[in-house]
Design brief:
The structure is a homodimer of 850-residue chains.
Chain A: E1 6-7, H1 16-19, H2 21-31, E2 39-42, H3 44-51, H4 58-63, E3 71-77, E4 88-91, H5 95-105, H6 107-126, H7 138-153, H8 161-176, H9 179-187, E5 196-202, E6 212-220, E7 227-239, E8 244-251, H10 261-264, H11 266-283, E9 287-294, E10 297-305, H12 310-322, H13 328-333, H14 339-343, E11 347-348, E12 356-359, E13 361-364, E14 367-373, H15 376-384, E15 389-393, H16 401-406, E16 409-412, H17 420-428, E17 432-434, E18 440-442, E19 447-449, E20 455-457, E21 461-465, E22 470-473, E23 478-479, H18 485-497, E24 501-505, H19 509-517, E25 523-527, H20 535-546, H21 550-575, E26 580-583, H22 597-607, H23 611-621, H24 633-638, H25 641-659, E27 667-670, H26 676-697, E28 704-709, H27 712-716, H28 718-722, E29 727-731, H29 732-740, H30 748-756, H31 773-787, E30 792-796, H32 803-811, E31 816-819, H33 824-839
Parallel strand pairs in A: 14-15, 15-16, 16-17, 24-25, 24-31, 25-26, 26-27, 27-28, 28-29, 29-30, 30-31
Antiparallel strand pairs in A: 1-2, 2-5, 3-4, 3-5, 6-7, 6-9, 7-8, 9-10, 11-23, 12-22, 13-17, 14-21, 18-19, 19-20, 21-22
Helix pairs in contact in A: 3-8, 5-6, 6-7, 6-8, 12-18, 18-33, 19-21, 20-21, 21-25, 22-23, 25-26, 32-33
């Protein structure tokens, strides 16, 4: 036996880094003096050599096992999450062994074991399709299986255990190195060069009289995480008269029917309970053990981290910390932040049957059921009738906001992770699948053709799974979102640990309330334009657009002023003194004009302007590239009345707050800046509004001015703005679009090809591009702080909720990140993990198996 | 007299940097012992104090002038091109002086002189509208003028010369410091802190018996620059009987009618000729002198660089160098590169009457006359009839290329300096006015409403002045473009001097021929997509777009291959071995689809695909922001057949050239790159095509691969690409769009506001933004050279022809710039000036006045 392959025994050197997590786990069991059957761990190097057909030491290893014993081979990659080939059991089974076993257990049990082994071996070692095998039982089934094996593989089924082991080892080693397996595990976070270890373990296959069976046990409820013995036991019963072994499935824990391991074999149950507790203490983790009982003996065959839902994962971590098994920091570090996407939204139950109609991009997590509607108007009508609906659109636009509010979920034909539907959906916590372009959308006929050709009509019920990107037929069972005390405890610990602030992007009082519920430390981005799509305001906005003169525009805007002021009064109230960063009007004005003929006719009537005049204006205002057009500060400079009204609304709301004793300092942010002079012009105008108000009310109050850095030029010139403002906030959505020259609304067409071919490592709208966009952030931060060391720096945009992006931003000295309200918990835990990982030493230095 | 204010006399210290160009010029005349009337130069500082109403030394200065003498005050800024307030003449004129002069010259002359002085003084000093004054003649006119002055200003007209001088000085000094004057001169290139000097000069106002008159003289033809005495003379004739002075205008030089200075006063003519020669020799420049004759005395009052057209400017510089008055380098340095915009295109004659219908952005220089047409089809029909036409469009698109080829000029309602019409127009040398949005375009009715309300219809004749941006009614006289021997000589000298290469952007064989005529050193950018808009190819392109599979696309593209190959064969032939850089297909495919219903119906017939299918595809392919969409290398990666066909066409053309003995190394450029992997993928595919061809023909030839750096990310990551390629070319058009987040097609709406308000110093699409975009260029160049020091670096795009931008690019180490063929001469002279100015010492170190 090479020094790299180790008989697992007390004091042997079986590390996850050389033999994989499973080998290390078994080693821990052995170290605890727990009863593990004879096991040998093959190292990564050995397995790699086996893949190249070099079996030098294997024969020697096999000699350590009893000649008659069956063995199993299980995979042992470095991380249990990385999968690996399926285990192969019952190796060593052959005609003779089958016959001998038959005498002990009867024909059915023995033949069934042998048949299953042949089929499994055929599949995994020789890639023979299992559908070829019949379902015949007993010795007839075995004969048939042997014959089919011979026909398909061209050789007789191997009878020597050694030969079977070689075949199984080779197949498993080579399967690990196949391209598809590599891609699959890379998707789960494995590095491309990750290796496989294998475990050869003796099997306990014979009933020896008395109790015989196997099962699993863990000490936490898999669904809730509460302390509870959970698991199941398969008990074999030998009918001595007929020599026939039959099985019964039962839970491990007492279930009140008398049929449980605890009641049937109380001694073994108590023993297993104690074993599991010992393992938990040693490994500092809730563990699921796989055991076998043979007479009075108990064997621990295998194990893994206890099975758990997202909710259970949080409670298990908190309970371990509260029981002082691990530290609070360890508890935080154990939570994969993206688990919260499950926790904070309804989900399709894991056991539900999924009847998939098609799939797109998982743009906003959570699941919802509803009737198909094809317009925002229909969505509102449906909501009015109290019927949940799914809004289906080619792509959503600001005109669909009300429809989205009325819908239970959104499905779009086009768009990517940062398309309008996706961004708004995430903001509202509305499940959303976008870019489902493999389904065919016939908006004229109000039909959707599923990927398999089924046709869906208006009012058909479907389910949108925004977590997986799937569109499902009918109503699978959903699990509710669940934020319990364990979640709150963990969050409080995370807040103690982290060293950057987390704010939320919130455009409306409802958003602000969600943000506040998730304990956001403020609003980092309030997009004021969304306030103008409300039906009562939209017509006024349009009237403003059609006003001929500055005075005319100002007069119309004066009517919007009190509404806008009330928006801010509400936001300030909800946020209770926490900072609120308000971005001035950003989108191009033409987004507010109706694009349909009906809409234009309505507007013509409402404003008493000839239809052709409306159409002329719509055509005239159209832009080739609206993303790069007359919007943001460019509107602020050329149509100053809008920003003046907004400044007045913000400052009047501030004044009211002061009168009510809340000494708020509002933050005003200028969008789409590319030159210093833009900031100067806007600053002067806001200052003028402020001075006028202060004089009128004989009162002093301040505001903080900031620039939204979202053009590459603004990032490069950040030093130029620094002295004019109190803060800079990097708008990484637009910055990504401009740095790549890539429209988020159009990128969906080729993004998947690009990511698949490795052109982009990841979709840069999902995970911040640390090389290109990140370089602009680094330069911007450096230059800005160089000019004004006490400047506040932040990022707002979709990346604010992405763990890797938060890590990057914290690394370059950003003070806070702002993200969708529903991402706030993710960001909070993520920030805590970053702070902890810099100083972290796990509670116990013993290498953890899982 | 302060030491700063100087009586201009031999050896006094009157420098342009302290007293302005005019003072320095007069000082030179005095130094040459030429007869200059008594003149005092007020320094910049004195004038600035006068603007603040501090007149300390002026009284003392006035005492140097004879008590009875009239004086004039002329502006003297540092550069003669910067303008300044108008001169004020005849200061000292008053009731008494008028009466005395009347005795010598009769009532009309004297009263007219006084009236004009009052009106001019009223206007310039007291801002009184001259329309208030009547046209009465004689002493009645004077009385009326004095009365109106009193009514409007509230005080009597000042009678003291001292008081008048103070008023005039104050008015001129303050006029210089007004905001509008500052903006005006800054537009002419003056720094914002530029100062004004003033000259007080004694006037020779009295006929003394014998000859009396004044005029100008220069020794070069203002229109052609050829050696020739030119100027005019206004001769006063005193009718002793009636005591009445009358005037006759005549040319200075002999004109064959006997009525010229040369014939009437030969001695004075000869003297003036000799004076002008002496001044030319001293100042090393053709000079226009302003003189006065009084009896036998000649006075030189003033002067300036000789008046000259663009053509004359070139010839004058060349002649001065050929006569060894100045060096060749001096000759090059004297040419303002933008003069060539006049030289290389037809122009509206300077003396033509301009009946302006409206104006827009001067997008492509030159003038053309033609009948209005509203579609490309009409333009082609018009061209077929041999009738010049002006193509009027809301905006041009690639579909208009053929119409543009047929038109004499283009006028568009929308767009900016880098809109489609502008870029293509400049490339073709086609006069072009874009963004004429103050005129009203009614495309439905085929009408244009001029800014003054006049209505223009199809076939009305208009003139487009692409140099000024004006749209003129009818047919003003045009001057032809004129490239003479002097131009060619100057260009040859420039080529000797410069140290960066100049290439042209050329998309078609015609462009390439123009480029070759202008002695471009190669093609720096051949945009291959323009080759596909030819009618015979467009349908094939569309068929390709509708092909369902890769194989289908490849089959269609195979039909385009021979045409595309022939394009390159021709380009290689025309360029005769000079490098040709071919950019692979760049625009989004939807640009090739018809947007009108008619066009779609035609396509439906041509391809035998149902109309609704065509429409569905058009809708499906539409993009929100085409600039940031599926184009460039993104098409190359996702629809590889196009680039493969192009690579094959380029390399087969190369192979043919080799067979003909021309060992060409084609340059292939990948557009819109943002990630290294994009380059790798395309490089691998081109290499495969190359290997296949080399094997087929048993022949070796190379190509040079390059990346077009036009996304900010590509600039930041330039080091990543460097090792994969032979060259990088910065596409500054798109790079500017993305760095600012500014669409060139949409920026027209607010660019003028932005430049007027000083938000942007200049339109960044016209002059490279050296701070933002320039920083990306600097970073890109540095990082690329760091990885591969022998990489070739260039810029292509509109900035390639802009002098300031060329200076910047040369400064950061760019090897060549590529610009529109018609900008090549500008770029050549500009590059020469940059190289010269680094080592330049003017021929004579004497400070030049002009």
């Amino acid at each position: 036996m090479s020094h790299l392959d180790t008989l697992i025994s007390v004091n042997s050197a079986v590390a996850t880094t050389t033999h994989g997590w499973r080998a290390n786990f078994l080693q821990h069991l052995v170290d605890l003096a727990l009863p593990v059957p004879m096991s040998v761990a093959l190292s990564f190097d050995t397995v790699h050599r086996i893949a190249e057909e070099k079996f030098s030491d294997i024969e020697e290893i096999l000699e350590s096992f009893p000649v008659e014993a069956l063995v199993c081979i299980r995979p042992s990659p470095q991380d249990s999450a990385w999968g690996g080939p399926s285990a192969i059991l019952s190796i060593g089974m052959n005609d003779e062994h089958c016959k001998r076993l038959m005498e002990l257990t009867g024909e059915e049990f023995s033949a069934d074991l042998y048949s299953r082994f042949i089929q499994n071996y055929a599949l995994q070692v020789d890639k023979i399709d299992t559908d070829l095998f019949s379902v015949s039982k007993g010795t007839a089934g075995v004969r048939e299986a042997l014959q089919i094996y011979q026909e398909e593989s061209g050789t007789a089924f191997p009878q020597l255990r050694k030969e079977q082991v070689f075949g199984a080892l080779r197949a498993m080693a080579q399967a690990w190195e196949s391209t598809s397996a590599r891609l699959l595990r890379e998707a789960k976070g494995a590095p491309s060069e990750s290796k496989l270890g294998l475990i050869i373990q003796e099997m306990i296959s014979y009933p020896s009289g008395g109790e015989f069976g196997n099962g699993t046990i863990q000490l936490a409820d898999p669904e809730t995480g509460h302390a509870k013995v959970a698991g199941n036991y398969c008990r074999y019963h030998l009918d001595q008269s007929a020599i026939s072994l039959t099985s019964t499935n039962m839970p491990v824990e007492r279930n009140g029917c008398g049929l449980s391991l605890e009641e049937c074999v109380p001694k073994a149950f108590a023993q297993l309970h104690e074993y599991t507790e010992r393992v938990r203490a040693k490994l500092q983790e809730e563990t699921q053990l796989t055991f076998q009982i043979q007479g009075d003996d108990i064997y621990l065959l295998d194990g893994r981290p206890a099975v758990r839902s997202a909710q259970a994962a949080v409670r298990i971590a908190v309970q371990l910390a509260q029981a002082r098994v691990i530290s609070r920091e360890d508890a935080i570090m154990r939570i994969e932040p993206n688990l919260f996407n499950e926790l904070l939204h309804r989900q399709v139950a894991p056991d539900a049957v999924r009847d998939v109609l098609g799939s797109g991009i998982a743009a906003s997590p959570g699941a919802a059921v509803g009737q198909i509607v094809f317009s925002s108007a229909a969505a509102q009508a449906s909501a009015a009738r109290g019927e949940p609906c799914i809004l289906v659109r080619r792509e959503t636009s600001p005109e669909d906001i009300r429809g989205m509010h009325a819908a239970a979920a959104v499905l779009t034909e086009r768009g990517g992770v940062t398309s309008h539907a996706a961004v708004i959906g995430r903001g509202m916590g509305l499940p959303c699948v976008v870019g489902a372009s493999r389904m065919t959308f016939r908006f004229d006929d109000e039909k959707i053709i599923a990927e398999d050709g089924r046709i869906l009509h208006q009012n058909d019920v479907i389910t949108i799974d925004g977590s997986s990107g799937q569109v499902l037929a009918g109503e699978p069972r959903l699990l509710e979102a669940f934020l319990d005390d364990a979640f709150k405890t963990l969050m409080a610990w995370a807040d103690d640990a982290r060293d950057i602030e987390i704010r939320a992007n919130a455009d409306t009082p409802e958003d602000a309330r969600t943000a506040s519920n998730f304990e956001s430390q403020g609003i980092g981005l309030c997009r004021t334009e969304h306030m103008f799509f409300d039906s009562s305001r939209l017509t006024v906005m349009r009237e403003m657009i059609f006003a001929e003169t500055a005075a005319g525009r100002a007069a119309v805007l004066a009517r919007l002023l009190p509404m806008q002021r009330d928006d801010f009064v509400k936001l300030f109230q909800i946020m209770e003194g926490r900072p609120v960063c308000i971005r001035l009007f950003d989108p191009p004005l033409h987004e507010f004009l109706p694009t349909t003929r009906t809409g234009q006719r309505e507007l013509s009537n409402a404003l008493d302007i000839p239809l052709h005049e409306i159409q002329r204006r719509v055509t005239e205002m159209a832009e080739y590239n609206p993303m790069l057009g007359l919007r943001g500060v460019r509107l602020g400079v050329t149509v100053p009345e809008i920003y003046e009204m907004q400044a007045q609304a913000i400052l009047e709301a501030t004044f009211r707050a002061h009168n009510n004793g809340a000494h708020i300092v509002p933050e005003i942010m200028i969008p789409l800046v590319s030159a210093r002079r833009e900031v100067e012009l806007i600053k002067n105008r806001i200052d003028a509004v402020q001075n006028k108000l202060c004089q009128e009310h004989d009162f002093d109050f301040n505001y903080r001015l900031g620039v939204m850095v979202e053009t590459p030029r603004a990032a490069l010139q950040a030093g130029e703005f620094a002295n004019l403002v109190e803060f800079l906030s990097f708008g990484t959505n637009d910055l990504t679009q401009m740095t790549y020259g890539l429209s988020r609304d159009d990128a969906g067409r080729f993004m998947s090809t690009y990511v698949q071919q490795g052109v982009f490592r990841e979709d840069p709208f999902r995970t911040l591009d640390t090389e290109g966009v990140g370089e602009l952030l680094r330069l911007g931060v450096k230059r800005a702080l160089n000019q004004k060391p006490n400047l506040t720096l932040s990022i707002c945009g979709e990346h604010g909720g992405n763990p890797e992006s938060i890590a990057f931003c914290r690394g370059i000295g950003i003070h806070y990140v702002s993200c969708s309200p529903f991402r706030v918990p993710v960001a909070r835990i993520c920030a805590a993990q970053l702070a902890i990982s810099e100083r972290w030493v796990p509670t116990d230095v013993a290498e953890r198996a899982v």
